[in-house]
User: What shape does this take?
Amino acid sequence: AFASVLDDAFVYHYTYVSEDNPLGLGATHGAELAGLFGHVEGISVEVAPSERGDQLSASLQTAWTDFANTGDPGELFDPYTDGATITLLDVPLEQVDTIRGDRCATANELSTLSR
Assistant: This one.
């Protein structure tokens, strides 16, 4: 909803889950920060590094650095206003037009009913 009213917002959805997934939590809010800072497999939980985790970490670091330097995170990130694309942060990075089984659209519709 926020991205749809801005001119050049980039939207991503973190879906990467470590092969070990020691706590069974899956891809949680803020988990992408571990990969961004070079330790995608976890910060406080001991998990063996993996090739997929290293690949995702490199992709995140490149995108965030490019965005900080140029305002453009790269070819797999398009502004949300350009066809409502969302980048899935996983291996490989992927662009989609809906996430979470389109539950976000349903929540947006319900929120307008309460006004």
Q: What stands out?
A: Strands lie at 12-14, 86-89, 94-96. The CA atoms of residues 87 and 95 lie 4 Å apart.
